[in-house]
Amino acid sequence: MSKLISRISSRRTGRIRLRKNTRRIPQGIIHIQASLQNTIVTVTDIQGRVVSWASAGSAGFKGTTRRTPFAAQTAAINAIRTAVNQGMRKADVLIRGPGLGRDAALRAIRRSSIRLELILDITPIPHNGCRPPKKRRV
Prior knowledge:
Elements: E1 27-34, E2 39-45, E3 50-55, H1 69-85, E4 90-96, H2 102-111, E5 115-121
Parallel strand pairs: 1-4, 4-5
Antiparallel strand pairs: 1-2, 2-3
Helix pairs in contact: 1-2
């Protein structure tokens, strides 16, 4: 049986690093996923690394109020606030899903100081889709 080697703790020095670093992001991509129950807004840089995210559930809405446009608007404002603080000025918007919050989240982004370069709807559409279940016999 091998011996366990004790790890030297970095907290011994007394310095604790913050997890979020303050990098400057001039341009990014805003993903809006509007499902029927919730709206999730994710802000990434050009490479696709997540800068910030927020959802209607994380904004404090529970139950059926998560699906409302106001909850989506609040989630979009929360997600964009940290991106603007890191210097984001231009962004592309990719919207996915059939939810009620897609327009409200887009309106909240338009009202912010971010200039939108591109707005795309990337909702997946089935081309003939899955095979339907067999006919029910009574």
